[in-house]
Amino acid sequence: MSRSARGGRDKVHRPDRNAAGDAPRARSPGQRRPGPDAVRDGLFTCTTCQACFKVCPKKIEIPGKAIEKLRAHANRKGLTLPRHLEVAALVRETGRSVPRTSESFLEKVGDVIEPAGPVRATVGLFIGCVYNLRQQQSALDAMEVLRRNGIRVIIRRSRSAAAHPSSAPGSSTT
Q1: Are 162 and 97 in contact (CB under 8 A)?
Q2: Cα–chain-centroid distance for residue 21?
Q3: Which residues sit opposite 152 in a β-bridge?
Q4: Phi and psi based region of residue 65 (left: phi greater than 0; alpha: psi -120 to 50; beta: remaining)
Q5: Strand (E) positions, 15-142?
Q6: What digits encode the pLDDT tens for the residues 1-19?
Q7: Is the distance from CB of 140 to CB of 173 less than 8 angstroms?
Q8: Which of 8, 35, 117, 166 qualifies as a cystine partner to 171, CB 3.0-4.6 A?
Q9: What distance in Å separates the CA atoms of residue 165 and residue 119, rounded to the nearest whole number?
Q10: Whether 154 and 112 share a structural domain
Q11: Is there a contact between 62 and 53 (Cβ–Cβ < 8 Å)?
């Protein structure tokens, strides 16, 4: 055991304990892959926000080098959250990660939204599945703001599903 001073008080570091003072779980020799407890223990709670990488003294890219790889391995072994399986199935079946609940934004608008007055600018718009299928009113409100400010909006109709909803939980097949 070694001692170090932190915050004015001595702390005992034990190589047989983790930072919380708990004994590490028994592992078989060479085990580095997620097991059945990985989901329960929080493998999918990481938001991959990169905060750990920013403060890591060794500059280890933890989300990309560890978390995402472990998630992909767990996913291949069938160890994932039920909702992630549902989203992956939805992407495979419909090409979208969000189910249809009502008339879509793209069904409500034409190919071009003309401004209320003279054209001051023209923009192209790619509308993602969340705004198209779930938050149509927010998208319509944004179009109204652009229209009132002299912006012509050209709507791009062809699109593919965003990769993040299925790749974040470790799926490499959708």
Answers
A1: yes
A2: 32
A3: 122
A4: alpha
A5: 112-113, 121-126
A6: 334 444 444 444 444 444 4
A7: no
A8: 166
A9: 36
A10: yes
A11: yes
C-beta separation of 72 from 48 below 8 A: no
Query: In this structure, are residues 68 and 170 in contact, taking their beta carbons and an 8 Å threshold?
Result: yes
- Strands (E) across the chain are located at 2-6, 9-13, 112-113, 121-126, 151-156
What is the Cα–Cα distance from 84 to 33, expressed in whole angstroms? 19
Q: Which domain holds residue 52?
A: 35-80
Q: Is residue 3 assigned to a domain?
A: no
Neighbours of 111 (CB within 10 A): 10
Whether residue 49 lies inside any domain: the answer is: yes
Local structure of 57: helix, strand or coil: coil
Buried/exposed 85-105: b ≥16 CB within 10 Å, e otherwise: eebbebbeeeebbbeeeeebb
Q: Please, are residues 102 and 136 in contact by the beta-carbon 8 Å criterion? A: yes
Per-residue pLDDT reduced to its tens digit, 62-87: 888 888 888 888 888 888 888 888 88
Residue 95, SS3?
coil
**For all residues of the chain together, what is the average pLDDT?**
75
For the whole prediction, is pTM greater than 0.90?
no
Total structural domains in the chain?
Answer: 2
